[in-house]
Design brief:
D-Maltodextrin-Binding Protein, domain 2, 289 residues, globular, alpha+beta
Length: 289
């Protein structure tokens, strides 16, 4: 079992090899899926045998790497269990992109020890980019160390986000936030792959990211990679319930206070029904200057 940080690096690098094999399998199936091989799990949620085969490969490989470990997986090819060591797996984040042959889909794997994430790997398949980190070891992209961006103002920031696939209960507030960032930043991008949005924030391609309606397998690996790259990860109230709380914010530490203030004002602020929403949000941000 993992006993020290040196061993943790070893397990992380071995995980990268297993993830890369799954990514190779996925890449080899691009454009080869027939219509009858696609299932709709729920509205806007597609799956194919590729997701399930990739997941089985990951479960088998990671189970051999760390005997006795348990799993939390998106496709449920293995029974979810709680244990000292738990792998959290999304075998194909961005299935819709993959099935439509659009760039941007990834394999995401995290390992938790006693409910604390200790390593994370996100492999973006189309560009063959392997992002990885282990706790207190830094974050890397294909062997090179990465850091979040040095941007200091939200008005200069490029923001990533994602639309909720199923949970539309907060959609009005989400669109208010979208409007604010559209008018007060360098722009927004939506790839449809949460894990990729997060690692792109980790390496400075994006300056900040937010989304709600996610699951642990969407964010566990990416969150650790952002943190090890010097960034900040939280829920929409600045707390730590981002793994199971279905809302997450990730950014470099310079824009975090302003970014978080806006998100909190939109999603958890006082009722702005009789006020100009942008005025309220701008006031929240200006108080930080």
């Amino acid at each position: 079992m993992i006993a020290d940080m040196e061993n943790l690096e070893y397990y992380c690098l071995e995980t990268c090899k297993i993830v890369a094999q799954a990514a190779d399998f996925i890449r080899g199936k691009l454009g080869k899926i027939q219509k009858g091989e696609i299932e709709e799990k729920s509205l806007n949620s597609l799956v194919s045998y590729v997701d399930r085969m990739a997941e089985k490969h990951l479960v088998d490989g990671l189970g051999r790497l760390l005997p006795g470990s348990v799993f939390l997986t998106e496709e449920e090819t293995i029974v979810t269990q709680n244990g000292t060591y738990q792998w959290i797996i999304d075998p194909l984040d961005g299935t819709t992109n993959f099935l439509h042959q659009l760039p941007g889909f990834a394999v995401s794997v995290a390992l938790q020890y006693r409910q604390q994430t200790v390593l994370g790997v996100v492999y973006e398949v189309t560009r063959k980019e392997c992002f990885y980190a282990w706790r207190e070891g830094g974050a890397f992209l294909n062997g090179e160390k990465i850091q979040v961006s040095p941007k200091t103002g939200l008005n200069k920031a490029l923001i990533a986000t994602g639309f909720p696939d199923q949970d539309c209960g907060k959609i009005k507030k989400y669109l208010e936030a979208y409007q604010y960032f559209l008018q007060n930043t360098m722009g927004l991008r939506r790839f449809g792959v949460a894990s990729v949005d997060m690692v792109y924030t980790a390496c400075g391609r994006f300056d900040a990211y937010f989304q709600y309606g996610l699951h642990p397998w969407d964010v566990a690996a990416g969150a650790l990679i952002v943190q090890e790259a010097g960034g900040v990860v939280s829920d929409f109230q600045g707390g730590e319930n981002y793994l199971f709380g279905k809302e997450i914010l990730a950014s470099n530490r310079f824009v975090t206070p302003e970014f978080l203030a806006i998100i909190k004002a939109v999603f958890y602020g006082k009722n702005t029904k009789n006020k100009n929403a942008l005025e309220v949000y701008n006031k929240s941000a200006s108080e930080l200057q």
